[in-house]
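Protocol step 4 of 6.
Sequence for Phosphofructokinase domain-containing protein (Aegilops tauschii subsp. strangulata) entered exactly as in the expression construct, tag removed. Do not edit the line below.
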Amino acid sequence: MLGRTKDQIRTTEQVNGAMATCQALKLDALVIIGGVTSNTDAAQLAETFAEAKCATKVVGVPVTLNGDLKNQFVETTVGFDTICKVNSQLISNMCTDALSAEKYYYFIRMMGRKASHVALECALQSHPNMVILGEEVAASKLTIFDITKQICDAVQARAEKDKNHGVILIPEGLVESIPELYALLQEINGLHGKGVSVENISSQLSPWASALFEFLPQFIRQQLLLRPESDDSAQLSQIETEKLLAQLVETEMNKRLKEGTYKGKKFNAICHFFGYQARGAMPSKFDCDYAYVLGHVCYHILAAGLNGYMATVTNLKSPLNKWRCGAAPISSMMTVKRWSRGPATTQIGKPAVHMASVDLRGKAYEMLRQNSSSCLLEDIYRNPGPLQFEGPGADAKPISLCVEDQDYMGRIKKLQEYLEKVAFMNQ
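Step 5 output, structure tokens:
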């Protein structure tokens, strides 16, 4: 086990360096464990190794807490169940405290990078009063002021029912889903790329970006100026979006209180970031079983001499003895992104494993929205309790996994049976 990194293989020199190391160690195989970025690297290494006739085979394994490596072959990733179970218990503890004290609003930021799968699953498990999904914000093109108004209206509606407390979940990728903040980040990153020092970036922003930048609190300005990650994305875990929203909501509620349009108690917010508390947890029973099976599949992939494949298991919502093992080419999960840098230019990026965002037409999202009104105005908090390794709770699986109808391997098997019947009838 070589270790964990956020770095991405970018250059020909890095690829060749990896190949030289594999050849020097006489490795039969290199198993890359990770999410979208890691498996994109796995595909690139597999292709280069094959072209160079390097004996080392490359296999990918879907492991990431973000849950954003999802497609017809991969139903969920190792780690997602654990992170959601641990976070849901922490959220439920906050819900209990809010209900007890009756005077605080908890703003809780969840991990998950650009996709909101963790926030969605935790909301389904713990029933907070409100969850803001980045995908919803992006689809509706909501501004920071729109989101602030939504939260303020919710606070006011709850106050009319004599409820001056609540719990609100926020995904860490929300900052990149808000159009004006995303555009500001892009402009800042562009100046980073040109070698402009952090001290001088604010003075070189365009007029609209400068106006927005000056409007934001000092702590957010400093966080937005942080250098981007190796994949050019913002350092999302360092940007305290929950504190920004809490501050904007407090300002607006104080204004409404002074104007007399809000008659509840003074607004009080407490902010949390649930990240590394869950990342360092013992794995759930589901994740242990899933990882063990994937490891076994890796062995069979390599024994068959395959290169550039990902280990897969489908029908995961069923009991373990009904899981279906398989393998899929990583290239079948890849897309090429296009983006525009102006009206006259369109850039075509490199192929990458597709990052799945929350499906706003999916069954999990539909379940969330069916209960959203009740969760907002009533306190129907749910506490799933701590991780269990024995007993009925040990076999619980992600709700978002169980409600979706997937099982790609099962459908392929059924198709094969139908084709065999047709072939038999034609004889």
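Step 6, annotate. The first strand starts at residue 29 and ends at 34.
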